[in-house]
Amino acid sequence: MVHDAVSQWTTTASTASDVVTCINSLVKELNELSPETIQNALLSSANVLFCTLTTAGGLSVKSTRPVNDLIIDEAAAATEPALYIPFSLSPKRLLIVGDPMQLPATVLSQRAERLGLSKSLHERLMYTCGHEHVMLGVQYRMKPEISLFPAHRFYQGKLENGENVER
Questions:
Q1: What's the rounded Cα separation, in Å, for the pair 22 and 72?
Q2: What is the pLDDT of residues 121-130, one digit of tens each?
Q3: Model confidence over 98-118: pLDDT tens digits?
Q4: What is the DSSP string of 35-76?
Q5: Helices 16-32 and 2-12, packing angle to 10 deg
Q6: CA-CA distance, 133 to 14, in Å (whole number)?
Q7: Distant-in-sequence, close-in-space partners of 47: CB < 8 Å, separation ≥ 6
Q8: How far is CA 105 from CA 51, 80, 125, in A?
Q9: Domain ranges of the chain
Q10: What is the share, in percent, of the chain residues with pLDDT greater than 70?
Q11: In angstroms, what CA-CA distances link 71 with 65, 93, 94?
């Protein structure tokens, strides 16, 4: 509805006054819509969606169309049940990014930990199931003096420093 009005106004507005009138009409029309209607229209037309795992489980996101690609960052820090939340978006492909050596899943319940919920899906796929994974070999954040310890302790000396931190 708003899209049709914008198309009509852009073809008929010829003076500055016409443009102002069109914009005022569009603002009036938008103000009459509920926030949920606007949110649903934006979500259903989005090509890329960035959100937290928890937000992905919200009603508005769950009611969007299925996605082709799902990328989950900091996946090693999320518990396995939390990583299942965005699966409601029915992705065709999944890429999970994270480092279980850097930031493991946090579980406060001893019972949940005994049940194995302190291991993230990311960690389980990498180590238990042996799925293919790639380790990035260059770090760009820490000074070399600081990165020396994790490079040797966790990455068997395979972690190198980027040029930016070497300078």
A1: 41
A2: 888 888 888 8
A3: 888 877 888 899 999 999 888
A4: HHHHHHHHHHH-S-----HHHHTSHHHHTSPP-SEEEETTGG
A5: 170
A6: 57
A7: none
A8: 19, 8, 14
A9: 1-33, 47-133, 135-167
A10: 92
A11: 16, 9, 6
CATH topology of domain 47-133: Rossmann fold (3.40.50)
3-7: long-range contacts (C-beta < 8 A, 24 or more apart)?
5/29
- Look up residue 7 and give its two tokens: 């198309």
Which pair of tokens denotes residue 77? 């820090």
CA distance 165 to 151: 14
Two structure tokens written together for 11: 């073809």
Q: What would the two tokens of residue 133 be?
A: 């994974």
Residue whose pair of structure tokens reads 């600081």 in the numeric block:
146
Sign, Cα dihedral of 157, 162, 163, 164? negative
Q: Please state, in angstroms and as integers, the Cα–Cα distance from residue 11 to each residue in 5, 8, 22, 71, 137, following that order.
A: 10, 5, 11, 40, 54
CB 128 within 8 A of CB 151: no
For 48, half-sphere exposure in the C-beta direction (CA atoms, 13 angstrom radius) is: 3
